[in-house]
Amino acid sequence: MKPLYRNLFLLFGVAAIVVMLLTFDVDYTQLWDNLARAGMYLPAVLGVWVFVYAFNAWAFQIIVNHGTHDKHLSYRHAYKLTVSGFAFSYTTPFGFGGGPYRVMELSSYIGTPRAMSSVVLYSMMHILSHICLWASSVVLFIIVYFEKVDAWLWSLFGVFAVLLLIALYFFYYGYKNGMIVKLFSLLLHIPFAKKYARRFYDKHAEAMEQVDVNIAHLHQQGRAFYSSLLLEYLARVINALEFYFILHAFGLFITFWDAVLILAFSSLMGNLLFFLPMQLGAREGGLAAIIKILGISSAGVGVFTSFYTRIRELFWIFVGVSLVKIGNKRIMK
């Protein structure tokens, strides 16, 4: 990536951190009280993400290194791009910022089509791991809380199963055949957009088709495909420790399996409202709902959990933005 573009990403990240600090809806007295109450649980919450990002980076490294090129991305740089990429995804609507950053960093080594296909593949794998988490959490809920599954929940699970099968078919088709050209072709039928979409497609059709070829290439390598999916799924499961530590700090001594269910439901709500930067309000609402379903009653748990997660996000956004200017020589060899 050119130094100018890297500096622009850095400035944007710094500006986003300043805005978040200024809009952090907690006064200094409340902030200090919460920090004092957190004790050693706050470092544990921050530390969980060292391991979450470690598995994310491993999956990203596998995807990049199994592309149609002869370059090798080191694990150290995969970790850097992972943390920085998620930092920009947190701070932009629709999570848009992380993808372009990774593409621009990799494109000078393997070309834009290959870099774009690697990033799109990883984004698809990241979403697919969420779907796998939601599906396995439904099974877990039925096993652990079978007595709570009434007719309404059975109906809800049935609808979810149908939507899950549709989503899995969509991902299977996208991995097997590529999906960039198919998705972009939808714009060719939208009024007011089709004129500009046609012009863009005519100019970049070959590059877009190459991206699809690269996407299909990973699907043909079963071991790399399923290894990266497993690593992403494990990252999601490890992420549940964040809620485990937060609720223990609040005095709610839940099991790890409860933490997985809480993560899955709050994650589902957050992803349904993905257009909100940092998923403001979505996760808190999902958290309050699942805690009520599980029979865990405690006033203010949503606000307390929100405090923890915002502190964790701000910390890792700061780390990710700082890494933009560090270790940029010979990312791949």
Your description of this structure?
The structure is a single chain. The chain has helices at residues 3-22, 28-38, 41-65, 75-90, 98-110, 112-144, 151-177, 180-185, 194-220, 222-249, 256-272, 282-293, 301-322. With 333 residues, it is an all-alpha fold. It is globular, with a radius of gyration of 21 Å.
Q: Let me know the average pLDDT.
A: 78
Distance between the termini: 15 Å
Classify the secondary structure makeup into a structural class. mainly alpha
Low-confidence stretches are 275-279
Number of helical segments with 4 or more residues: 13
Beta strand count? 0
H/E topology pattern: HHHHHHHHHHHHH
Q: Over the alpha carbons, how many angstroms does the gyration radius reach?
A: 21 Å
Layout of strands and helices, then pairs:
Elements: H1 3-22, H2 28-38, H3 41-65, H4 75-90, H5 98-110, H6 112-144, H7 151-177, H8 180-185, H9 194-220, H10 222-249, H11 256-272, H12 282-293, H13 301-322
Helix pairs in contact: 1-13, 3-4, 3-6, 3-10, 3-13, 4-5, 4-13, 5-6, 6-7, 6-9, 6-10, 6-11, 7-9, 10-11, 10-13, 11-12, 12-13
